[in-house]
Amino acid sequence: MVKDGYLSELTALFDRYHVKLYNFFLRLTADKAASEDLTQNLFYRIIKYRHTFDAMGGNFRSWAYQMARNVHVDHYRQQRKMTDQFKHVQDDHYNIAGHEEAFRENDFDRLNRALQELRPDMREILVLSRFEGLKYEEISRITDTSVSAIKVQVHRAIKHLRVIYFKQQ
Description:
The chain contains seven helices and no strands. The protein is mainly α. The radius of gyration is 18 Å and the shape is globular.
């Protein structure tokens, strides 16, 4: 119905998906403010491109995650351009030697740090499959890749994540 111009129906879709999509962006960026902005941009795009939704070709969830991927890619490209233009110096007190040994972190924090060290494509495939709970068929449609290729990518990403995770001790 949103496709046909009934934008009031978007409220139900927003209520149903905004937290999941925010968490998707948060796991990809590890930045709350950026994730809020990306979620907002995504729903603007959903309104703008609502006419492209094809109910026969898939469900709204797959279509929304496809658009979310595009929003994230655009954000990543913009960030990369900005970092190419400026050198950033971080005064990050967590990089001080011995600080991490001063306290014991839980496994969830280690997992999130390891996830952030993965290449963006590996992180995205794991977030879609393991955190967002999308089926391989849905991810296949979103990424325009075969299901078997998705299975291989997930396997490799988990293997790589495992190596990073256990190096963090």
